[in-house]
């Protein structure tokens, strides 16, 4: 791998982010693909293979691939432009805390300034655990979470596609923060293997057809993910989906009405709720992230009031309208529909391992009344 470092072309000031080298601003492209690489942890070794895949395609005048790379083994952070067969260090920053939303904000703002485009994709690369955390910076012992994601999206302007190359992030609590700030979002309900996204295919598709619409490319990202993991031996439990963010407010309304119906009928049907929960597909190693559509199906299979059956149907319809592409592997449940939500296990809501205080900060839980339901359910 050839590494090229540009000499400074002039004095550029970024508060708190020292610049050692600056590239001249190119003309506007059709797409700029940004990757926020939080590899200051045990995933450091997974970044190089992803970078090599991107270098196999490289940027063009129509499509730019950039990454902000923080590695555990280094004391600086590099903003790189990924070319065919190599990469260019655009700027070198002092060590950063990638769990600080201001770092992500500065990254996106800087890239938009240096590499303007008609459309933008922002990919968060690292560990993930749904609403609880993603992008862990081991040196700083900090991470991003849903409230911080909200801060980032409020500050960076519209992003056409937001993606998560991180586990368990295809969750409504996470995606709700993108409303009004993004066109589509892609991610996995389940864990993502160390191989990560198929960056070579994703890059080649965009370079081959830079004029494609945002919705088309969002669907292609799901197709490419499925083709990769569907072809590999030893895999098959993976999932990946694309969601139209503009449909999330309608889903929030349907879910709020459903939550009200659940609360109204809790006294007489709690056992039915529990039975439905028992049968719903749950994501591996979570407590619990459950497929939202599947819970509605399971609940409708119980003897519950007609009003609750209809409210569940409304949520299912809203999910179907929001999820524009959904893939799951041959070893995965067919009850995967592209979105999870958090139904805490009792010990994680009221017990010694309670994370309720953290969930109280999640806007989805506040707006829809889901926090109130969990409080009542575990009272």
List keywords for this structure.
13 helices; alpha/beta; Rossmann fold; disordered N terminus; 10-stranded mixed beta sheet; 23% strand; 379 residues; two-stranded antiparallel sheet
CATH topology of the largest domain: Rossmann fold
What's the domain count?
2
Round the Cα radius of gyration to an integer and report it.
21 Å
Order of helices and strands: EEHEEEHEEEHEHEHHEHHEHHEEHHH
The number of helices is: 13
End-to-end C-alpha gap: 58 Å
- Beta fraction of the residues? 15-25%
Secondary structural class: alpha/beta
* Strand tally: 14
CATH architecture tag of the largest domain: 3-Layer(aba) Sandwich
Regions with little confidence, pLDDT below 50 for 5+ residues:
1-23
The CATH top-level class label of the largest domain: Alpha Beta
Q: Can you list the strand order of the major beta sheet?
A: 1-5-4-3-2-6-9-10-11-13
The major beta sheet can be summarized as:
10 strands, mixed
What share of the residues lie within helices?
25-40%
**Average of pLDDT:** 94
Shape: globular
Explain this structure to me?
The protein is of the alpha/beta class and 379 residues long. It starts with a strand and ends with a helix. The protein has 13 helices and 14 strands. Helices cover 38% and strands 23% of the residues. It is globular. Helix 1 links the parallel strand 2 and strand 3. The protein folds into 2 domains: 219 residues, Rossmann fold; 120 residues, no CATH class. The strands form 3 sheets. It has a 10-stranded mixed β-sheet, with helices on both faces. A two-stranded antiparallel sheet has the order 7-8. It has a two-stranded antiparallel sheet with strand order 12-14.
């Amino acid at each position: 791998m050839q590494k090229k470092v540009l000499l400074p072309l002039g004095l550029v000031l970024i508060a708190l982010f020292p610049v050692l080298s600056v590239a001249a601003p190119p003309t506007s492209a059709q797409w700029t693909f940004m990757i926020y690489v939080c590899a200051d942890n045990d995933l450091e070794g997974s970044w190089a293979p992803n970078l090599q895949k991107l270098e196999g395609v490289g940027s063009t005048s129509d499509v730019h691939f950039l990454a902000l790379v923080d590695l555990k083994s280094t004391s600086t952070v590099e903003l790189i432009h990924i070319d065919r067969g190599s990469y260019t260090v655009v700027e070198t920053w002092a060590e950063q805390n990638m769990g600080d939303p201001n770092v992500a904000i500065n990254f996106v703002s800087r890239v938009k300034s240096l590499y303007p485009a008609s459309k933008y994709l922002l990919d968060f690369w690292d560990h993930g655990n749904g609403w609880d955390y993603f992008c862990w910076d081991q040196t700083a012992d900090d991470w991003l979470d849903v409230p911080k994601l909200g801060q980032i999206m409020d500050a960076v302007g519209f992003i056409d596609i937001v993606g998560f190359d991180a586990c368990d992030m295809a969750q409504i609590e996470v995606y709700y923060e993108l409303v009004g700030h993004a066109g589509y979002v892609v991610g996995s309900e389940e864990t993502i293997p160390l191989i990560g996204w198929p960056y070579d295919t994703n890059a080649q598709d965009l370079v081959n057809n830079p004029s494609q619409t945002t919705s088309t490319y969002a669907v292609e990202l799901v197709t490419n993910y499925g083709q990769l993991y569907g072809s590999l031996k030893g895999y098959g439990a993976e999932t990946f989906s694309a969601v139209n963010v503009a449909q999330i407010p309608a889903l929030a309304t349907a879910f709020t009405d459903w939550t009200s119906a659940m609360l109204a009928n809790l006294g007489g049907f709690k056992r039915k709720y529990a039975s439905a929960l028992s049968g719903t597909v749950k994501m591996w190693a979570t407590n619990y992230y459950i497929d939202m559509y599947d819970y509605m199906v399971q609940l409708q299979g119980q003897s519950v009031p007609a009003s609750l059956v209809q409210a569940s149907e409304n949520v299912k319809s809203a999910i179907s309208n929001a999820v524009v592409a959904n893939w799951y592997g041959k070893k995965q449940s067919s009850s995967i529909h592209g979105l999870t939500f958090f139904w805490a296990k009792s010990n994680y809501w009221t017990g010694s391992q309670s994370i309720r205080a953290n969930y109280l900060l999640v806007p989805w839980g506040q707006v829809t009344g889901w926090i109130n339901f969990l409080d009542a359910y575990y009272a």
